[in-house]
Automatic annotation (TrEMBL):
Superkingdom of this protein's organism: Bacteria
Native source organism of the sequence: Streptococcus pneumoniae
Name used for this protein in its record: Phosphoglycerate mutase family protein
Family annotation (Gene3D superfamilies): Phosphoglycerate mutase-like
A Pfam short name: His_Phos_1
Stored InterPro entries: His_Pase_superF_clade-1, His_PPase_superfam
Length: 100
């Protein structure tokens, strides 16, 4: 899991953004069914990915967060759902936030 903290100061308004990468995905079933392209966006988290996200949910850096923003990709939404359940923060899903 990767974390990155970015401080922005625009027109006197400070904003802190915490970037978090989703947990490890499990592509096995999708590969067995020969999913390609955007079909791989349906991959859920692996058991290891769920463990990573449970650890992430306890990160003290998240205590300063006000909202969780996630892409609509399954692995990102599953990651966000763990964080939302642990923190009680609101979730905003951004469909245009995805890999290029």
């Amino acid at each position: 899991m990767a974390f990155e903290l970015v401080d922005l100061d625009r027109q006197g308004t400070r904003m802190k953004i915490i970037f978090v990468r989703h947990g490890e995905p499990d592509y096995r079933e999708l590969e067995e069914r020969s999913y390609i392209g955007f079909g791989i966006d349906l991959a859920p988290l692996s058991d290891m990915g769920r463990q990573q996200v449970q650890k992430l949910s306890k990160n003290p850096l998240l205590s300063s967060a006000e909202i969780i923003v996630s892409s609509a990709v399954a692995r990102a939404l599953e990651t966000a759902s763990y964080v939302v359940c642990a923190t009680g923060l609101p979730l905003r899903v951004e469909p245009l936030l995805h890999e290029w």
